Amino acid sequence: MSDVTLNAATANPEATPRSAPLTAVGPIAWARTNLFAGWLSTAVTLVCGYLIIRAVMGFVDWAFINAIWSVPVNANGVAQTQACRDLAGSGACWAVVTEKHRFMLFGTYPYEQHWRPALVCILFVALYIVSALKRFWNWTLIPIWAGTLTAIGVLMWGGVLGLPYVPQERWGGLPITLILATFGLAFAFPLSILVALGRRSNLPAIKVLCVLYVELIRGVPLISLLFMASVMFPLFLPEGMNIDKLLRAQIAIILFAGAYLAEVVRAGLQSLPKGQYEAADAMGLSYWQKTGFIILPQALRTVIPPLVNTFIGFFKDTSLVLIIGIFDLLTARLAGLRHRGLCLRRADLPGVLLRHVEIQRGARNRPQQAPPAVMSDRHRLAPASRMPPAGRRAGAPAGAAGDPHTKPPTWDTRNT
Questions:
Q1: SS3 16
Q2: Do residues 44 and 100 share a domain?
Q3: What is the per-residue pLDDT across 258-270, written as a single tens digit (0 to 9) for each?
Q4: Which of the residues 83, 122, 154, 265 has an alpha carbon 20 to 30 A from that of 176?
Q5: Domain of 26?
Q6: Which residues sit opposite 328 in a β-bridge?
Q7: Does residue 408 sit within a domain?
Q8: 79 has which bridge partners?
């Protein structure tokens, strides 16, 4: 009897399982529901698709089809960059990457010592990866950070273990960006926790100090703090005492980031229900036990998204150190493009500031000479081509004998 029933079920086509129609499930159904649900949705989808296709085709033409990957070099070793300028923005000039990639990444760091900043960048990436692994979220992470940051300082400065000393003025590029962002956020985050707890303290003096700190720092832009750290702060130091410019900028970034992060942490503390505090008090926990084991873990977990958003914003804000003469990754890239004449003309402030910093560095690297009796600001900031260096007669051609500072140009920088 069972065999007859099974055969009958097999012979009946309605008894066999059938798959759902393609228009009811799957990508086709999703597209009909979300992209082509009505005439207005269909029109918007078609317009957006057309714009996306045009943008992709334009990018491909600019980045690959019309791009210039190399430029010819004449018999004198001068690269001819006229082809890049003739593009007028219709194609990319990737020749600058192959020519100036070291300068963009490491700035004016000595060429033969570029392995040191490259190793520093690798150490930073390894430190980020180790910090993201959950099994290292204990006390062992503290000596790992301390040892890595010490190794980074030894590699960048040198002067020990047979490494030649490199002053901070020669640093630049990607290591500067990573140093400012990593050190700034690493020290600003603990500061922000203390300030946030201070703003919620019952002690009036501590609360007033924390409120003044946050409101004053958040009331001014980062550029003003960098100017104060670079220009005004040295005026208050004793005569003969000087603090490194990078350290002054780092302190300004730490104070600025700490004020903004403190408000994010304070928002997390305020989001906790009052019952959490009362439960901790009922268990007989002290203030620091209650804060460290109950309050802070929940508050920080709540504000992880705004914390990450703030971290990313401060990582991008490190490019503002250009205004005090520190070359980060973005600044070194712009300097490399302008120096080699491979970029289009731009009316931007970084270009003007870069020219001023280059003049200042060139004057500082030259041998010390007796200053003239009177030198105006116009002559001090005049282009090098209008200021004949010592040892060359006025009107003598560039590269004449007796001019140890003039070098023959190696790149055509006309019209740049």
A1: coil
A2: no
A3: 999 999 999 999 9
A4: 265
A5: 10-65
A6: 173
A7: no
A8: 73, 411
